[in-house]
Design goal:
It is built from 13 helices and 14 strands. By secondary structure, the chain is an alpha/beta fold. Helix 4 links the parallel strand 3 and strand 4. Helix 1 runs parallel beside helix 2 and helix 2 packs across helix 3. The chain starts with a helix and ends in a 14-residue tail after the last helix.
Length: 391
């Protein structure tokens, strides 16, 4: 729906503001247009796509590379924080048609005059609501100050709060409003709510895991300290768990996210901010270890399960002190059950089916997937059928 409704207007060079969920196919909606009007022989920056996280920027760049396969010599460059600065500068010097990046790092390159947007034709803000939530509004305004007035601006957002409308009116001209949320299939999620004693939250979490038996779980906590404590307690109980929070270095966060996405870690314990940009297609269960701040955050959290036609499970734990506040969450579809009725399996363990190997090398080192496969099957003696994707 998002492509069918927005592409005709985008191709007419109109500014549009599109409300569409993650995974709705919106990357192709703006990606096809950017590639369509690209002057490939001119090695100047003609399109800039801003994303809230490095992970999302990488996903968008990957999809653009796939869409550009039929067009010869399209140069797409990713500029994100958490990666070395100098190699990015070297890549900019060689010229690029399309820049995909996070606001902070793009602005750094603009301030150092490594990057010029004077020939920019298309500006895309992907998941704009999340960029505003993460405090990028000042960076976005500074980046736009470097761009020409006469450009096309495309704004994509999963939600449509007042601040998005204000941003649109400030940076777009007569933007067309396209909403495809209603045409998209709702996630199939069974929602359980369990009242627990505060000092037994982790043991009750283990009980819920042992009863429902999911293969992979995303657990949300409200503080950084708690994420680490919960992950450590689960690991000690035989449930493979990792924590992700703001105190980790970027490479550590990337490592944790890759392991969870590859099913090399069964449980990821995260804060809301740390889980941004996490897009796991087959996530069986989401747990609100702590109650989210509002209904919008709750919807965003549990919306990560039950995707692509699969059925998902969402569990929320609350204490007796929070029981009154839970009245806002009660409706006909949500189940408020007694956690003591759940079957507890003694000595429950949850181990991941895969192991991920990270190699510090890639295409620039002339390393190909075939070389890695050859080393693993030859020298390491691992059967080929046990080796999964090589990315």
């Amino acid at each position: 729906p998002v492509q069918a409704e927005s592409l005709p207007h985008i191709l007419k060079n109109c500014d549009v503001i599109v409300q569409a969920k993650t995974g709705s196919g919106k990357t192709a909606a703006f990606g096809l247009e950017v590639l369509h009007k690209l002057h490939v022989k001119k090695f100047i920056v003609q399109a800039l796509i801003l994303c809230p996280t490095r992970k999302l920027a990488d996903q968008v760049a990957k999809e653009l590379h796939r869409l550009a396969q039929a067009t010869h010599n399209v140069k797409i460059l990713t500029l994100c924080g958490g990666a070395a600065f100098a190699p990015q500068y070297e890549s900019i010097l060689h010229g690029a048609h399309i820049i995909v990046g996070t606001p902070g790092r793009v602005l750094q390159h603009l301030d150092k005059e490594h990057l010029s947007l004077k020939d920019l034709e298309t500006l895309v803000l992907d998941e704009a609501d999340r960029m505003l939530d993460m405090g990028f509004i000042d960076d976005i305004n500074k980046i736009i100050a470097h761009a020409p007035e006469n450009r096309q601006t495309l704004l994509f957002s999963a939600t449509y709060p007042e601040k998005i409308i204000k941003l649109s009116s400030a940076i777009q001209k007569n933007a067309l409003n396209i909403q495809t949320i209603s045409g998209e299939q709702a996630n199939k999620i069974t929602e359980y709510f369990y009242e627990v004693a505060h000092d037994k939250k982790t043991s009750m979490l283990i009980k819920a895991i042992s009863h429902h038996k999911p293969q992979n779980i995303l657990v949300f906590c409200n503080t950084k300290v708690e994420t680490q404590d919960v992950a450590d307690t689960l690991s000690a109980a035989g449930i493979d768990a990792l924590a992700i929070h703001g105190d980790l270095e970027q490479y550590q966060r990337t490592d944790v996210l890759v392991r969870f996405a590859n099913k090399s870690c069964s449980v990821l314990v995260a804060t809301d901010v740390a889980a941004r940009g996490l897009d796991i297609k087959e996530l069986e269960m989401v747990v609100n270890y702590d109650i989210p701040q509002d209904e919008e955050t709750y919807t965003h959290r549990i919306g990560r399960t039950g995707r692509a036609g699969k059925e998902g499970l969402a569990i929320t734990l609350f204490t007796d002190h929070q029981a009154f506040a839970m009245g806002n969450y009660r409706n006909t579809t949500r189940r408020f059950d007694d956690i003591n009725k759940l079957n507890k399996v003694e000595d429950v363990t949850l181990t991941p089916p895969n192991v991920t190997i990270v190699l510090e090398g890639g295409k620039k080192d002339r390393m190909r997937p075939g070389d890695i496969l050859g080393a693993l099957t030859g020298e390491a003696g691992i059967e080929g059928k046990y080796i999964g994707k090589i990315d």
